[in-house]
TrEMBL record, chains A, B:
GO MF annotations, alphabetized: ATP binding; histidine-tRNA ligase activity; RNA binding
Compositionally biased spans, kind Polar residues: 1-11
Reaction(s) catalysed by this chain's protein: tRNA(His) + L-histidine + ATP = L-histidyl-tRNA(His) + AMP + diphosphate + H(+)
Residue ranges of the region described as Disordered: 1-31
This protein's name: histidine--tRNA ligase
Sequence ranges assigned to domain Class II Histidinyl-tRNA synthetase (HisRS)-like catalytic core in this UniProt record: 114-321
SUPFAM superfamilies xrefs: Class II aaRS ABD-related, Class II aaRS and biotin synthetases
EC number: 6.1.1.21
Keyword vocabulary terms for this entry: Aminoacyl-tRNA synthetase, ATP-binding, Ligase, Nucleotide-binding, Protein biosynthesis
Gene Ontology, cellular component aspect: cytosol; mitochondrion
Domain of life per record: Eukaryota
Cited InterPro entries: aa-tRNA-synth_II/BPL/LPL, Anticodon-bd, Anticodon-bd_dom_sf, HisRS-like_core, HisRS/HisZ, HisRS_anticodon
């Protein structure tokens, strides 16, 4: 046994003793017990053992170890994201695991049409994840280039000045200006002129202001970029996402390869302080959860004729979304279900194992996720407690007298209300309470 | 660019030329074009480029590269398996990727109750996967030990003789007997007596025969094992799986750690010849797709008090199931859908982009997986061909005259039947044709 395994074993011993003491004390809260129990389950999983219950054990290599709660949360987040992807006709070409993903639309298409679909997708996913209010900042690289040109930046400095502008989400204008002037050699007035532009953000009103800016419109890049953004905003209107979209001239997105629209989704109410990700890289403000843009000339994208393929794509900060959702659940003192069991088949007295098994089998056959105790004569209270702990919505309580009348007791676990349901109507009653359509 | 990348590029050039020629020839079949197109898509994915369309790009490391068809198949298989697991209240404690899985029930429970649930789960999954007819062989380690004892095998040779018996699915009795006698030093008549037992298989009838075998029942291990199997078969009846279960005394499952029931599912109609898996290990007959058993004393399984936890588990040969399903699809000349798009919003004439976008957005909002062309004025035939190629079930064809009458054309892509549907009833009509309940 390796040292770390020995440490795990020793912590298991310690926590087991601790749990015993907690359970013996009348002052112990359920949360304290839950906490130690959860830690024990974790330790046992680490030790290669397992807690009692039905588990699908890990098989993937190279991924972090997660507990059942975290796994359930991750599955939920990924399934929401995948459902939205599929809603837009996406196909998967390899296993998406717990890293960033690329939803990409590649091909020579109508201008701004794939681009607005990427932004629509961000809007749908953030809405579905219920992470709170958000804004999707958009800008266009051609507009930034045009601004730099009319402000007097030499062409060879466009990229480096762009990366200075990119820092505006974390640094003040004064700091960014100092970098432009002192480190990158811009004239003071050139930097000031850039500042007048990049401080602006807003919706279509800003677009109108810029479209009537004769100096900017005199530059062919800016003109083209602004006209594309006008088209983009008209599409936002059709896709019903205008309220979430903010035209933000300070959005630059550092990566050199963007050539067209760029966008970034920010959760409001979260700090925009930079955070460092697991690989030690700075990963942007915690509020930033998705981003992307158009990259038409990227090496390696080519069609059957060897031509480069225009492409627009979006990535989601999946690990960050997990962290935010975990934090939210903790602060709201919620736990999330680790199983999807819909019905628990309990018995009120002894000798009903066979009846329970027949009923359980019948429910499985009809697609109802069902559990029943693995003991022949379990105590009723323990069974009901199990349902409440596991947040199973419905319990069937089998009893001899009800069975003789051809009915079973159907219990709503949360409200604890019980109703006698004729055996022939049981499936319908369960489906109706679970909002499952009859198949 | 590495050599292998250069090779990929060169094959892309070659296949592209080939495709051109195929398309130019009147004798080319759709299958020939499909084949080359699929290979091109694969090559492009390999080259780090991508084909046109919406893709979720790979992020996982250490997994094979799969094409969209294979990914869709893998997703389908895994989702069927996971759904069945969840139907039984399982929780996931780490990412299940494309390897074997362990569904396990750990804990001190009623005898044979978790065991029969594992066999029921195999039955459900193989039925849901529609892989054809199958049999689930079962046996019990105590019965094997009892047989060895009454046949005169010394106790220290039980395990090694057990592993000889395990070879009976691939080798003849004569070869196995020779190994027992010549290599493992059993007396000829001892081996013959074992042979009389392990050649037997059947259902409850065999169980009855053995229960009335006074010699065997005189051994306490065999007696206990046979009584447990009687209980097991009575549970099989309650779970409605008896027709698929075969009591097979030659089933031994080589692994030493099994202590109770053992089981293995075999697809009928597949060769039982051994196959070698990707790691070069022999992976059993191709027909064997799931197996497991009870392992009560395995090191590392312990409860909060440090006692060992009884455990029964089942593993699925997921890669083998993929291969079998791929082979089946190929031999039936079927392709599987790589996207889940339900509706395609097409236009019959020019100038309808805005209407298409509004309708697409409306369908997304209502949870309908929808695509529309990324061109403002696409050709109608090309749009309908796209739907047929991608097996999208429904197309909406927008036309000016229909719009003036407040209707849209709803087309069943496969039958090519069209119907004018009032715009207000469109969502209901789509849901009804797709069998989606209204939410």
């Amino acid at each position: 046994m390796s040292t770390s395994k020995a440490q795990v074993q020793s912590e298991i011993q310690e926590k087991t003793e601790h749990l015993k003491k907690l359970k013996a004390s009348p002052e112990t809260t359920k949360e304290e017990i839950d906490e130690v129990t959860a830690r024990l389950a974790e330790l046992r999983a680490q030790a290669g053992g397992k807690s009692s219950g039905k588990l699908i054990l890990k098989t993937a290599k190279g991924t972090k170890d997660y507990g059942p709660q975290q796994m359930a949360l991750r599955e939920k987040v990924l399934s929401i994201i995948m459902d939205c992807f599929k809603q837009h006709g996406a196909e998967t070409i390899d296993t998406p695991v717990f890293e960033l993903k690329d939803f990409d639309i590649a091909g020579q298409y109508e201008e701004m049409l794939p681009d607005v679909e990427c932004v629509k997708l961000i809007d749908e996913i953030l809405t579905a994840l219920k992470l709170g209010d958000f804004v999707i900042k958009v800008n266009h690289r051609l507009i930034l280039d045009g601004i730099f040109a009319v402000c007097g930046v030499p062409a060879e400095k466009f990229r480096t000045i762009c990366s200075s502008v990119d820092k505006l989400d974390k640094a003040s204008w004064e700091d960014v200006k100092a970098e432009m002037v002192n480190e990158k050699g811009l004239a003071n007035e050139t930097a000031d002129r850039i500042g007048e532009y990049v401080k602006q953000s807003g919706g279509e009103a800003l677009l109108k202001t810029l479209l009537s800016d004769m100096i900017l419109m005199g530059n062919p890049w800016a003109k083209k970029g602004l006209e594309l953004m006008r088209l983009f905003f008209s599409y936002c209107e059709l896709f019903d996402i205008t309220p979430h979209v903010s035209f933000d001239l300070s959005l630059a997105r550092g990566l050199d390869y963007y050539t067209g629209i760029i966008f970034e989704a920010i959760l409001l109410g979260y700090s925009s302080q930079p955070i460092v990700n697991g690989s030690g890289e700075e990963a942007g403000g915690v509020g930033s959860v998705a981003g992307g843009g158009r990259y038409d000339n990227l090496v390696g994208m080519f069609d059957a004729k060897g031509k480069s393929v225009p492409c627009v794509g979006v990535s989601f900060g999946v690990e960050r979304i997990f962290s935010i959702m975990e934090g939210k659940l903790t602060s709201e003192n919620c736990s999330i279900r680790t199983t999807e069991t819909q019905v628990y088949v309990a018995s009120a007295q002894k000798g009903l194992l066979q009846e329970r098994m027949k009923l359980t089998s019948f429910l499985w056959k009809n697609g109802i996720k069902t559990e029943q105790p693995y003991r022949s004569n379990p105590k009723l209270l323990a069974q009901l407690q199990y349902c409440e702990d596991r947040k199973i919505p419905l319990a069937i309580v089998l009893g001899q007298s009800e069975m003789e009348q051809g009915v079973v007791k159907l219990r709503d676990v949360q409200s604890r209300e019980e109703e006698d349901v004729p055996r022939d109507h049981l499936l319908g009653a369960i489906r109706s309470r679970l909002h499952i359509p009859s198949s």
